[in-house]
Every structure is written in C-alpha cells, then in structure tokens.
C-alpha cells in the first residue's frame, strides 16, 4: 500500500473513531455550556467528553448550526443529552 493510501485510511479511521474536536470547537462548547450559570465547568467538560465519543466534529457542528437556525435542540442531540446529563450529573 502506498503512503497516500495509508494517509487516506488514517484520516478516515480518525474521523470515525471519536477523535477529539478542535480547540476552537471545544472552547466554544465549554463557553456556551457554562454561560447560563446553570452548568458547572466539571459538568460541561464531562458532557463534551461524551459528545466527542458519540459524534465526530462535523456531525456536532452540523447539529450546532441546526440548533442556531431553529433555536431548538435537534432530536438526535436531545436523545443523546438525556443519558449524558444523567452520567455527568454524578461527576
């Protein structure tokens, strides 16, 4: 297998493996999460960790854009947030 094919495969596997979001996305989420004053930094960090396991960055950003456009949580994200909320409340 040539180097170009290996690099392409590595990119695909990384995108599918729940890789960490960029610093910009992570920092934006944490600022937004804590801005209301209802969520602690510890809770928000836990929620971010769980979201990164479930959605790649492109999926997360697409849901974020949908939420900004509709002013509502996308159904898919809402379903994920119930168990995330339960798990992260304990931390």
SSE diagram, text form:
Layout: H1 3-16, H2 23-35, H3 41-54, H4 57-70, H5 75-89
Helix pairs in contact: 2-3, 3-5
* Oligomeric form: single chain
The tally of beta strands, per DSSP, is 0
Broad structural category = mainly alpha
CA(first)-CA(last) distance: 45 Å
- Taken in chain order, the helices and strands follow as HHHHH
**Content of β-strand:** under 5%
Low-confidence stretches: 1-17
Counting H and I runs of at least 4 residues, what is the number of helices?
Answer: 5
* Helix amount: over 70%
Radius of gyration: 15 Å
- Overall pLDDT: 84
Q: What does the largest sheet look like?
A: none
What does the overall shape look like? Answer: globular
Description:
The protein has 91 residues and is an all-alpha fold. It has five helices and no strands. Helix 3 crosses helix 5. It is globular, with a radius of gyration of 15 Å. The N terminus is likely disordered.
